[in-house]
Amino acid sequence: MASSESQLLRRHFDYGGAPVAPVFRRSLRFPFWNSVHANTDPNPKNHPSLRVKIQAQADTMMKPVSDNKIPHVLTVAGSDSGGGAGIQADLKACAARRVYCSTVITAVTAQNTVGVQGVNIVPEDFVAEQLQSVLSDMHVDVVKTGMLPSLNIVKVLCQILRKFPVKALVVDPVMKSSSGDVLAGSSVLTGFLEELLPMTDIVTPNIKEASVLLGNVPLKSVSDMRTAAKLIHDMGPRNVLVKGGDLPNSLDSVDVFFDGDEFYELCSPRINTRNSHGTGCTLASCIAAELAKGSSMLSAVKTAKHFIDAALDYSRDLAIGNGVQGPFDHFFELKNINHSSWRQNMFNPNDLLLYAVTDSGMNMKWGRSIAEAVKAAVEGGATIVQLREKDAETRDFLDASKVCLEICRSYGVPLLINDRLDVVLACDADGVHVGQSDMPVRLARSLLGPEKIIGVSCKTPEQAHQAWIDGADYIGCGGVYPTNTKANNRTIGLEGLKKVCEASKLPVVAIGGIGLSNARAVMEIGEPNLKGVAVVSSLFDRECILTDTRNLHALLSEPALLIQ
Ligand SMILES: Cc1ncc(COP(=O)(O)OP(=O)(O)O)c(N)n1
Ligand SMILES: Cc1nc(C(=O)O)sc1CCOP(=O)(O)O
Ligand SMILES: [Mg+2]
Prior knowledge:
Blueprint: H1 5-14, H2 21-25, H3 32-38, H4 48-61, E1 72-80, H5 86-96, E2 100-111, E3 116-121, H6 124-137, E4 142-145, H7 151-163, E5 168-171, H8 187-199, E6 202-203, H9 207-213, H10 222-233, E7 239-242, E8 252-258, E9 263-269, H11 279-293, H12 297-314, E10 354-357, H13 360-365, H14 370-380, E11 384-387, H15 394-411, E12 415-418, H16 421-427, E13 431-434, H17 441-448, E14 453-458, H18 461-470, E15 474-477, H19 493-503, E16 508-511, H20 519-523, E17 530-535, H21 537-540, H22 545-556
Parallel strand pairs: 1-2, 1-4, 4-5, 5-6, 6-7, 10-11, 10-17, 11-12, 12-13, 13-14, 14-15, 15-16, 16-17
Antiparallel strand pairs: 2-3, 7-8, 8-9
Helix pairs in contact: 5-11, 6-7, 7-8, 9-10, 11-12, 12-17, 14-15, 14-22, 18-19
Bound molecules: the ligand Cc1ncc(COP(=O)(O)OP(=O)(O)O)c(N)n1, ligand 3NM and magnesium ion.
Ligand 3NM binds next to helix 21.
């Protein structure tokens, strides 16, 4: 790889014959650039007077357009002509996560599914100019880096980031392409170790990159990955994610996350697919996107991992290119869009306040349809609904779900389905609730994608911990009191509920024998992540669902009980 400035410039200008002119030609809205273009020397560095003029004119244009900001990630990376990785993957990942993405290109690669045929490094001055251009004008929340092909590029990046601090810096320490071609030489390591990593909020090496960062120590197990995460953390980044997708002999893909205090092993089933080119860039961009939206680091990492798993799973059959490793589809969610795709936002834990769970036996007893029961519950103030129709025929269940979905959506209330992922997918419900012996949460997540709500029943702290690792959104914890609604259900009491809440990083809803007479006692255990109560008989085995829902909602809304 070229290292001296003259080599870098030569490589740059060799590329495509006339590299600078198109950049300037593009700028029709900036007439002063035409004069730059007319000059015989294309390097703006050599036109100090013009640069002053450009700066002056640009300054007058730097008026904030509006306060209505969209989360913004700036990616500093290389272009992949094949569109699977690099800048192209970053743009797609940010778009899929609904975050604005600006780009600073550090290199242009000729690349396809077979491998990398050529690399042209952008001179560090022009990388600096791109950085300055974006960061002096736009409000960037998070910077994400990918291919940083020269030490000088690492240096100018660090220098400019010190001038324009951002909320977070995500570093994907790209060293080789997935085809094995070298994208950053060993000299870059110095820049990583001395300057970039100490400024970094999260670094996301795969096994090979982690090994290189540590001086080529072999990493062969999850335990080695934990040691590596700790050692890399000692180099300065505040968080480390060592990705274990390439770990040999493992059925699962285990990533190790270390925040300086605790280790987390994030597991998902290994997805057997050729189409995994660009997963590293996409993962880092998703983390950046979630951080830009305001997520905590851990939840950004988890969301990003779910997104990758779902994208790989949905893209198994994609056939692009003839090489060994193909790209995947970042917009897999568009396949599932139908016109009632209402749920655009992530799950809101406060929706768990009054969780109405239906029961076909009770509706039959009172001569009501599922839809009538659900309508009364949401009118009365239920904040989330679960259809738990154990005896319904599939076709009837599906038809009822569609009607209930319309009702719930008209009230802005999420509708979940008990146990049946097929029904969730068929009617585009908002999510599923599963128990410990139903579809595993990990699988449910990879089948449903990152946006659907997944709840899981837990009776123990261990189950609660696993639920979080597996990608659930909330925990249903019970039976708090004895119940006749679910046969042979073990009662765990308020103590059991408290233990689960304490161990859980997820929001919790209490269930089992809860009604107007004891809901206060449940909420008064005072655990901040206990967000509400889930009830069946005290709403649906009653003469007037509307009145009983209203009463329970009023009680739960008392200021003394509300934990936001
Ligand atoms: C909110 C909520 N919590 C717990 C359950 C129970 O689910 P599960 O253990 O799968 O039992 P069944 O409901 O399937 O009998 C739930 N449904 N909802
Ligand atoms: C469906 C369910 N799951 C439970 C658990 O403990 O996980 S208890 C339960 C039944 C709750 O019904 P009711 O409000 O009528 O007691
Ligand atoms: Mg179940």
